[in-house]
Amino acid sequence: MNVLNIQDSIRKKYLVIVLMIGLFLIILGACSVYWLEKNQQEFTEQGEALKKKDVLINELKESLNNVFFRSRGYYAFQNEVELSLVYDELTETKNTLALLTQYKLSKEEDDLLVGLTDFLVTFETSSLPNAIALVQANDYIGLRALSKSGINNEVNEFIAYTDEFHQKTTNSRDLISQQINDDFQTKINITIFVAILLFIILLITFFQTLNRIVKPLEVMKQGTDFFANTGEINLPNTVRTDELGALNFSLISLMKTIHENESDMQAQNDELIMKQGEVQSKQKLLENSLLEVKNAKNRLEVMNQLNHSLTFSLNRQELVVIVREYLHEKFDLNISLLWLLETLESSSQGITEEFDRRFMEDRYNYVMERLHIEDSFSIIREGDIELGLAPKGTLVNDLFVGIKEEKGGLIAVFSCARIGRLFTTEEITDIEALLNRVSLSLERIRLYENNQYERNLNEGIVKTIQEGIFLVGQQGELLQYNQSLYDLLSGESHYPKGTPFSKWISLHQKFADNPDEIIGFFEQAIKEDFTDIRRIQYTFKRKGTKIINLYSACIFSDGTKTSTIFVNRDITKEYEIDQMKTELISTVSHELRTPLSSILGFSELLLNKKTTNDRKQRYIETIYKESKRLSSLVDDFLDVQRMESGKLMYHFTEVDIASLLPEIIGNYEYQNNHEINIDNQAFHSMLIADVDRIKQVFINLLGNAIKFSPGKEVVNIRLVNKDSGLKITIQDYGLGIHADEIPKLFQKFHRIDNSETRKVGGTGLGLSIVKEIVEYHKGQIWITSIKGEETTVHLFFPQHI
User: Fold this and answer.
1) Which of 21, 224, 612, 779 could disulfide-link to 774, CB 3.0 to 4.6 Å?
2) Three-state SS for 215?
3) CB atoms within 10 A of CB 116
């Protein structure tokens, strides 16, 4: 095939034309803009210069007028201030002349400024001094002669020139403004000319394009249309050597090739049509195959989901829904229902309320009786309300399958129906096989729920039990513990499951009083196998002191030890009760033996020995005093017993504490050894209280203050109203109390055990009784003390009881 060589490119030709036009317009526009901008700048500069010269000449005129005005003022009034202003105006005038000489001046302006400069020199050096002398001599005739001598002619000429120059300047600025407007109009005219020229060039280019490109293309289109309609070549050969010539040549060659190969193309077209039919047939088969694969994939996904639910699901309702939906779709059912008999979970499709009501009334009992005997049964009947649009008399095949547990008991029922289609034996067998798997899944769920219930029950027991329990593995790792253990050991952070022995045992290492023994007990219990219960007791000192009994036992599975359980029981209260019992026996035996020994000894002396009456009197007084002491001890024990049983009686009445305290102090047996001072700052000291019990409180507290301050003879009592109540403080300056002992002072039978207090007797019941009485009166009691310096007991009673 011949290929025409393109020698004259249309693209190149028109590109050159466009570039030349664009370049010409750019150069022309740049020159025009430069020329106009330059002229406008020159006119602007001339206008600005004229304006500044006009301003300076006016300032010069004003300065000269001020010089003559000030001079006349001086001549008339001989005021030295006016003379000083004359010299100031002369200086201003010379400065303005200097500025004016910096501008370009005409010859007339230059001559005028030279004359004006000479005048100023003459005026300042000659005329003005002469005039000043004449004024000072009061020679006004000479002054008028000097004025008429013509010295001011040049100044008058200059002032006249300034008015003329101002007019010329105004005219020049108007002329410049007119020139700028003319230049702007010229610019507009040039722009219009360039636009018209550009339009003409574009018009010429457009017609050239029509003649050179569009018309040949129209001819080619007519030739191709003619060839398409008739098959004949009617396209003239062109002598053009550009792209259109090449296109025309290619079209002619293409038409010839098409004309020559038309028969081959027709045969190939027929063959392609036949192959297209085969391809479409294969495509349809492929689409059907893809649809089958997709359906199979969906069925496989549903089957996998069913298998997963049957194997792992722990939710009965979820299992029922998935199984029923799978059977409904797989066996193309019209109606399906699956329900569990015991827990009543169910799922259905295609069942209306009316159908369900009639089934329960007419068929339910019959179906249940048969399924207890048979695994499944099928019924074929004429359809009724379930037919819908199906014609009356259409057969319906009902299938009922029972789901039974391992022992044969019925646990669920699956019922389904087909309208106009019957179940085959194979389909019934497949449904029964699948539902047998459902029975296994339901049994697995039941076992899981039973295990979960037992587990939750055991966890609930472990969590609620008061003893601290924890379970460890064979390597000592922590498996489980309850909140009671955390609270018992005053934990600050929880240990996660799997915490190693070395970490959780650190609490006992730090806070147990016998850590080596405790750690050995734990290690032995974890390593060894034993069937009995081992125990140990230890003291745990963290956020207080606790006495704990620790028990351990092994847990076995199929004869193999799997873990070890430890039980921590807080026996602090029992231990304290035992200690209190021991202290009570010791205290009672000591406190009772002392007065009884005195009573017995002095009684024997009175019976067996003759003594003077004075000595007998002393013996009898001692016996009486020890008897009262013994009676007081018995009263304390009885008060404690009554308080614990709630049988202590109170008789409330109005009591004035300020009046009661002196009575108590006056009758106190130790008043001769101690000075007891009362500082009453309360304006209202009346309480609603039991007089006898309040006396018991103050007698006990004053007795303690005196007993525990040997050698310190002062006890201070202070009363003050505070917070709608009465506050009373009793302060002694005796032995004092250690800070650790203060919280224990109100415990029954508690006595401070040291060499100083051991000399002072007592049962340890006094403060506990006082606290009980004060709290029964809705009051408060507390103690502050500095060891070796002082002790203060604070009482507060509300006054609105």
Assistant:
1) 779
2) helix
3) 20
CB 474 within 8 A of CB 526: yes
> What are the b/e assignments for 371-407, b being 16+ CB within 10 Å?
beeeebeeeeeebeebbeeeeeeeebbbbbbbbbeee
- Residue 17, C-beta contacts closer than 8 angstroms, at least 6 positions apart: 205
Q: Is the predicted pLDDT of residue 303 greater than 70, yes or no? A: no
> Are the beta carbons of 685 and 727 closer than 8 angstroms?
no
How far is the C-alpha of 336 from the C-alpha of 354, rounded, in Å? 15
Instruction: Report the candidate in 326, 349, 304, 324 with the shortest Cα–Cα distance to residue 401.
Output: 324
Say which residue the tokens 């290929």 belong to: 3
| Non-local CB neighbours of 689 within 8 Å, separated by 6+ positions | 652, 653, 655, 777, 797, 801
Of residues 716 and 302, more confidence is placed in 716
Torsion sign (Cα): 601, 604, 606, 612? negative
State the Cα–Cα distance between residues 16 and 231, nearest whole angstrom.
40
CA atoms within 13 A on the CB side of 64: 23
| More confident of the two residues 158 and 583 | 583
CA dihedral 133, 137, 140, 145 (to 10 degrees): -50
Instruction: Return the DSSP state at 393.
Output: T
C-alpha to C-alpha distance for 731 and 786, rounded to whole angstroms = 11
pLDDT single digits (tens) 696-754: 899 888 888 888 887 777 899 999 999 889 999 999 988 888 888 888 887 776 666 55
Helix (H, G, I), strand (E, B) or coil at 362: helix
The tokens for 223 are 């030739």
> Average pLDDT over the chain, rounded to whole?
78
Separation in Å, CA 755 to CA 585, 697, 739, 759, 767: 21, 27, 17, 7, 21
**Class of residue 55 by CB neighbours under 10 A (exposed 0-12, middle 13-18, buried 19+):** middle
Sheet architecture: strand order including 725-732: 675-680, 714-722, 725-732, 790-798, 780-786
| Dihedral over Cα of 342, 345, 348, 351: its sign | positive
Angle of CA points 273, 276, 279, to nearest 5°: 160
Nearest-angstrom CA–CA distance, 570 and 579: 15
CA–CA separation, 702 and 715 (whole Å): 8
Q: Using H for helix, E for strand and C for coil, what is the string for 173-187? A: HHHHHHHHHHHHHHH
What does the alpha-carbon distance between residue 114 and residue 600 come to, in Å, rounded to a whole number? Answer: 154
Q: What's the pLDDT tens digit per position in 655-696?
A: 999 999 988 887 655 455 778 889 999 999 999 999 888 988
Return left, alpha or beta for 420; rule: phi > 0 is left, psi -120 to 50 is alpha, else beta.
left
Pairing of strands 335-340, 346-349: antiparallel
For range 267-285, the mean pLDDT: 79
Instruction: Measure the N-to-C terminal CA separation of the chain; round to a whole number of Å.
Output: 129
User: pLDDT per residue over 365-412, tens digit each?
Assistant: 888 888 888 888 988 888 776 555 456 668 888 899 998 887 888 889
pTM: 0.37
675-680/714-722 β-pairing: parallel
The Cα–Cα gap between 755 and 744 comes to 18
Counts of helices then strands in the chain (DSSP H, E): 21, 17
- Encoding tokens for residue 297? 């994939």
∠ CA(229), CA(234), CA(240), 5° rounding? 135
Tell me the residue type at 480. Q
Rg (CA), the chain: 65
CA distance 612 to 619: 11
Please report, for residues 67, 74, 111, 173, the alpha-carbon distance to residue 60 in angstroms, rounded to integers and kept in the order given.
11, 21, 16, 21
- Looking at residue 4, its pLDDT comes to 47
Q: Is the dihedral angle over the CA atoms 699, 700, 705, 710 positive or is it negative?
A: positive
Q: Where are the alpha helices (DSSP H) in 609-679?
A: 613-645, 657-666
